[in-house]
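User: Can you predict the 3D structure of High-affinity branched-chain amino acid transport system permease protein LivH? Sequence below.
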Amino acid sequence: MDAVILQILNGLDKGSAYALIALGLTLIFGTLGVVNFAHGALFMIGAFCAVSLSKILNLSFETIDETQTDFLGNPLKVKTAYIESWFGPELGASIIDWAVPLAILFSIPIMIGIGFIMERGLIKHFYKRPHADQILVTFGLAIVMQEIIKHYYGANPIPTPAPDVFKGSFDFGTLLGFDPNVIIYPYWRLVYFAFAAVIIGTVFAFLQFTTFGMVVRAGMADRETVGLLGINIDKRFTIMFGIAAAVAGLAGVMYAPINSPNYHMGMDFLVLSFVVVVVGGMGSLPGAVAAGFLLGILESFASMNEIKSLLPGIDQIIIYVVAIIILLTRPRGLMGRKGVMED
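Assistant: Sure. Here are the predicted C-alpha cells for High-affinity branched-chain amino acid transport system permease protein LivH:
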C-alpha cells in the first residue's frame, strides 16, 4: 500500500505539469482553432525566467575585506551581491533564496508579452490555414526559441534550487498511519501540485464566473454569432492566447527546481502534452486536466520495477498505448466535443 500511495503522489506530480501545459494548449485550440506546437517552448521559457531572475539577483561586485587574508597575507577580494548591499545581508540573502517563487511575478508580463507577439505577429496569419500548416510553422517557431535559449544559456542543465524552507522531504506516511520514514516525499513536489491546483482552479473560475470568460466560452461555441453582437471576439481571443502562454510559463517556473532547466525540456513535454489533449478531447478544458492527471498516474505506476519486470519498456509507451485505445474506441477523446477529431 505504501508503494501504491507513493506512485499516486509521483503521478500527481507529473500529471500537474501535463495538465498545466495541456490546459494552455486546449485554451488556444478551443478559442483560436490553432494547433500550437510552440507551446512546449513557452514552458521552457518560463523555466528560464526563473533561471534569469536567479542570475540577476546573484549579480555581485568585489570588495576588499581587510579582515581576511590569503596565505601571503594579502587582503581577500570578497564578492557581495548587489541585492544584499541594498537591502542588508539577511533580507538580501532571503530574496535570493526565494528567487523561484519571485519569478512567478517576474515571468507573468514576459509570458503574456511573448504570447501577444506570437499571436499577432505569426499565428493570426494561419487561422484559416490547414492544421498541417499550423503544426509546421509553430514547430519551426519552437525550434527557433529552443536555439535562442541554447545560444544564450548553453546546452547544459542549469540547477535552480527551491527556497531552503522547501528543501528536504515530508513524512507523508505518518499522516496516513504508516510507520515513520515509510512514505517520504519532497516538499517542493507537493508545493508544485498545490500550485498547479490553484492555477487550474483560477483559470476555470475566470472562464466560468467572469463576464470576459463567459464571452470567451460563447465565442468558443459560436464565434460568428458573438461577433454579430458587436463584440470584438478576436481581441478577447488574443488575450486568451496571452493567458495560455502565461499558464505554460508559470508551469515552467515552478518546475525549474524539480528538473534543472535545459534548452530541450519544452520538446520533452510537448509531445506528451499533445497526447494528453487528444486523450482528454480536443477543445475540452476539463478533459485536458483530467487526462493530464490520469496519464501521469498511469505513467508513474508503469515505472514500478514490478510492472517493468513483467512488461519491459512499458513505462516508455504506456501513455501512447492508452491514447491508441482511447482514439480507437472514442475518437473525440474522453470529454471531447462531438465532431472534433472525428472526421
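DSSP finds 14 helices and four strands in the chain. The domain at 2-56+100-329 is CATH 1.10.3470 (ABC transporter involved in vitamin B12 uptake, BtuC).
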